[in-house]
Every structure is written in C-alpha cells, then in structure tokens.
Design brief:
globular, alpha/beta, seven-stranded parallel β-sheet, 9 strands, 294 residues, two-stranded antiparallel ribbon
Length: 294
C-alpha cells in the first residue's frame, strides 16, 4: 500500500459514527480484570469485537458477558495460560474465527510480579518473569503474523504493556525490570519489520502507579498460581505502603498529580494508542505516570 493510501484509510476511520474501532477485532491478554478488563470495555464501546484472553475462566467470562449484555456478539472469552505455547495458537485461531478471518489489534497486557532482591532471587522467579512478559507476547505476535502481514488497507496495531520499572529499574524487581525493558525492544523490532510493507504500528505503554492487585497491600491476599502449582503473592507489603502517615501519605508527593491512576484511566491510554488519532505514532514508549519519574 502506498503511503498516501494508508493516510486516506486513516482519515476514513476518523469519521467514526459507529466508534473509533468499528469493524476491528482486538485480542487483549489479561483482560479478566484490572486494566485489561477496562480496556476490553472501552474497545467494545468504540465498536471493536474484543477477545478476552485470561487464565481465570470465571473472570474472563464475566467480562465478556457484561460486554455482550450491552450488545450481543461483541466479546468472546478464550481461557488459557499465556505460558502454554499451544494456547497462543488456539487464541489466534478463535480470534480470527470470531473476527471473520481478521485480527487488527493485539494488546499484550497479561503479567504479574514475583519480587525478590537480587542476591536471594531464584532462577524460577527470574525465568517466569521473562516467560510471562517477553516470551508470551512474542509467541502471540508470531502466531498472529498471518493476520498482520497483510495489505488490505485496514489498520493493524500491536500494543505491548510495560512499566516504569523497565525504564528506571526498581529495587526488588530485577526480574520484572529486565522483562519490562525487553518489551521495548520487541515493540521497536515489530515496528521496523512490519511497518514498511504492511503499515503495522507497534507501541509500548509504560505504566506507573495504577491501583490494581499488583499495587494493593500484599496482606490483602491476592495471588497467582504458576503452572506447577506455586502460589505467588501479589502486591506491596503493608509496611511499605504505610511508610508515610496522614496528609503526606494521601498526597503521593512523588507524583505531580498527587494520586495513582485508576484502571480505567490506564485503559484509556491503551484505547488512545490503538485509535486513529495515534496513526503516526510508531515504535514509541508512552509513559502513563501522572508525571512521576520526569
């Protein structure tokens, strides 16, 4: 497709009475809760058919059912573990069938943390973080390649979710920081390989403090179970959260907006990057932090 043809196609999509993502099919991993679930709802509200990919069947189906209650046939739950290579192939297969033979958007959002200081971190902690945040997104993008390396004049977007831990590092998160830094390299490579001939856009969103189960108090008891049955506690130890008292604790002094983001606010940035308004943004890492770490 010639550059002018691509621009004309983008301009056509800017007239969106049926939604900015009308006619598009999106896969969102980790969409059973939190940021992923909010992104799925926003995408569906903008006309997309959304594939809810999550390991938790109850949560995935609940999100899909809620979306379909507002308009049947807009969401499909495909349950599975992103660490299972066979799941990625099945996910792409079902998404393509759901979308009438097309997939337009991938949001690699699934992930979790398994913290530990460097001198005490196990190989399993290290390997699991790279598998979840690097290998799984790579496998999904590779499996979906036949639906992205096409010249049908329709938009194609890959959005990889990272973290400011991958940009600045973070004590106790060497594994997570390395994995989230790796996401940036994957994003840029997709942009360079698939942008010239196919017009595929690929961008990273690096989140700061968002109120999810990963930033809740660890004492709340949230956990995730790895394929071998290991339960990994999620969240931040309460002593760290309670390090500041009173008004200072409520103001988040290291965030210029003085508050964390809600999951919906975070999801809006994903919608923005997927939308036609970001049609010339490619290979970038977009920080959504409320101004933290400027």
């Amino acid at each position: 497709m010639a550059p002018t043809d691509r621009l004309n196609q983008v301009n056509k999509h800017l007239n969106y009475p049926a939604g900015m993502l009308a006619g598009q099919v999106a896969i969102i991993t980790g969409a059973g809760q939190g940021i992923g679930a909010e992104a799925a709802r926003l995408f569906a509200n903008e006309g997309a058919k959304v594939v809810i990919a999550d390991i938790d069947a109850n949560k995935a189906n609940s999100v899909a059912d809620a979306i379909n209650a507002a308009g049947p046939g807009r969401a499909l739950a495909v349950v599975g573990d992103v660490l299972d290579p066979k799941y990625m192939d099945e996910l792409v297969k079902q998404a393509a069938e759901f979308g009438g033979g097309k997939i337009h958007i991938i949001v690699n959002n699934a992930g979790f943390t398994w913290d530990g200081v460097i001198h005490k971190m196990t190989d399993k902690q290290w390997d699991t973080m790279l598998a979840v945040h690097n290998t799984a997104p790579f496998r999904l993008v590779r499996a979906a390649a036949p639906y992205f390396r096409v010249k049908d004049q329709e938009p194609r977007v890959v959005i990889n979710i990272s973290s400011t831990s991958g940009i600045h590092g973070n004590a106790g998160q060497a594994n997570y920081a390395v994995a989230k830094a790796g996401v940036v390299g994957l994003t840029k490579t997709i942009a360079k390989e698939w942008g010239p001939a196919f017009g595929v856009r690929s961008n990273t969103i690096a989140f700061g403090y968002v109120t999810t189960r990963l930033t809740a108090a660890k004492e709340a008891g949230a956990f995730i179970t790895t394929p071998d049955g290991t339960q990994v506690a999620l969240g931040i130890p309460g002593k760290q959260l309670d390090g500041k008292k009173g008004a200072e604790a409520d103001s988040y002094p290291d965030i210029p907006l003085r508050r964390p983001a809600s999951p919906e606010e975070a999801a809006r940035s994903i919608l923005g990057v997927a939308s036609p308004y970001f049609s010339y943004v490619n290979g970038e890492t977009i920080r959504v932090t409320g101004g933290r770490n400027m």
